[in-house]
Amino acid sequence: MNILIWHVHGSWATSFLQGPHTFLIPVTPDRGPDGLGRAATWDWPSNVIEATPDRLRDEDIDLMVLQRPHELELAAAWTGRRPGGDVPAVYVEHNSPDGTAAGTRHPLAERDDIPLVHVTHFNRLMWDNGRAPTTVIEHGIIDPGPLWTGTERRAAVVVNDPVRRGRTTGTDLLPRFARVAPLDVFGMRTEALPSHLGLTPERCRARDLPQDALHPAMARCRLYLHPVRWTSLGLSLLEAMFLGMPVVALDTTEVREAVPEDAGVVSNRLDVLDEAVRALLADGDLAAHTGARARSAAQARYGIQRFQDDWEHLLKEVTR
Predict the structure, then answer these.
(1) Which residues contact 250 (CB under 8 A, 6 or more apart)?
(2) Can you tell me whether residue 157 is helix, strand or coil?
(3) What are the beta bridge partners of residue 226?
(4) Dihedral sign, CA of 193, 154, 138, 252?
(5) 8 A C-beta contact, residue 95 and residue 68
(6) Does this model's pTM top 0.85?
(7) Which residues have C-beta within 8 Å of that of residue 213, sequence separation ≥ 6?
(8) What's the distance, CA 100 to chain centroid?
(9) How far apart are CA 53 and CA 62, in angstroms?
């Protein structure tokens, strides 16, 4: 099939684009949010083809994969065809709802012609999906291999925009954890974080690394710390598990489902999390055993083949 999909979430798209289809990625001269084109930092296959808005009007399109509300109008304007009407479409909802659990009506809630695909069961539960047909396709990770060494007695945290996102990503909790373990905070726009939190570079290192350097650097840290209060299940958490890293995480959103008991410590009691960090820093054998269990659990549930099989099944149903 020829599938139209915007470059929105690079990590998720890297797994999705491994499929056997031709993927048309919109590109604009400024390579802005609606026309990023092919990724510069991820390895995308040759069947991912950039297409300008003018070219899209002449392309055969079998399916549209939408990820943001305004793409409904954008797709119609750029292709001359209505998603869900003229061309089959699916909408991937990457996020947990922003707002109260009782008042989060999804933008597609009034439509029944476009299946709504959530990436976690928690997200499907918390969104008010209205009459939209819904399903869940959990994340799939391209296995980076068991890279964990844990040679640096530090805790890895991965978050983009930690200063702006604040309590959502648990940024306010980092000074507390930094008293227990030195932190390496990986992600975009992290450079101002240590000064924002009043932490020295030794207690909190900001590390905005290119994608190919991220996993080896994470894997040198003794453990992965996930202080996130309210986002969808982070791909970085699953990637850390694939690396073989033991996990210490808040018991929020879908984390409990992803991290079994022997793969780390999941709790909303900060004292319990503190003790878990201390134990893993002190005992390299414990960290290695726990990380190996984390890797096994991630491979069993979030493998790329299961992800691709789930998507192939849905795409055939939608275009049938």
Answers:
(1) 170, 226, 227, 228, 229, 266, 267, 268, 273
(2) strand
(3) 249
(4) negative
(5) no
(6) yes
(7) none
(8) 22
(9) 17
Helix (H) or strand (E) holding 224: strand 221-226
Cα distance between residue 229 and residue 177, in whole Å: 15
Residue with tokens 């089959």: 88
DSSP 87: B
* Four-CA torsion 270, 274, 275, 281, nearest 10 degrees: 160
The one-letter code for the residue type at 88 is P
Q: Output the six-digit token pair for 162.
A: 């930690």
d(Cα 292, Cα 74) in Å, to the nearest integer? Answer: 45
Write out the two tokens for 137.
Answer: 């396709």
State the Cα–Cα distance between residues 256 and 102, nearest whole angstrom: 22
Buried b (16+ CB within 10 A) or exposed e, 239-263: bbbbbbbbbbbbebbbbeebbbeeb
Digit-coded pLDDT (tens) for 34-82: 999 999 888 899 999 999 999 999 999 999 999 999 999 999 999 999 9
Greatest alpha-carbon pair distance for the chain in Å reads: 62
Asked whether the CA dihedral 295, 296, 297, 303 is positive or negative, the reply is positive
Tens of pLDDT, residue by residue over 118-141, are 999 999 999 999 999 999 999 999
Distance CA 257, CA 269 (A): 18
Place 220 in a pLDDT band, splitting at 50, 70 and 90. Answer: very high
Q: Which amino acid is at 175?
A: P
Q: How far is CA 142 from CA 58, 180, 298, 317, in A?
A: 33, 32, 11, 25
pLDDT tens column, 252-287: 999 999 999 999 999 999 999 999 999 999 999 999
**Distance, CA of 277 to CA of 245 (rounded, Å):** 12
Q: List, in order, residues 6 or more apart from 62 with CB less than 8 Å away.
A: 1, 2, 3, 87, 88, 319
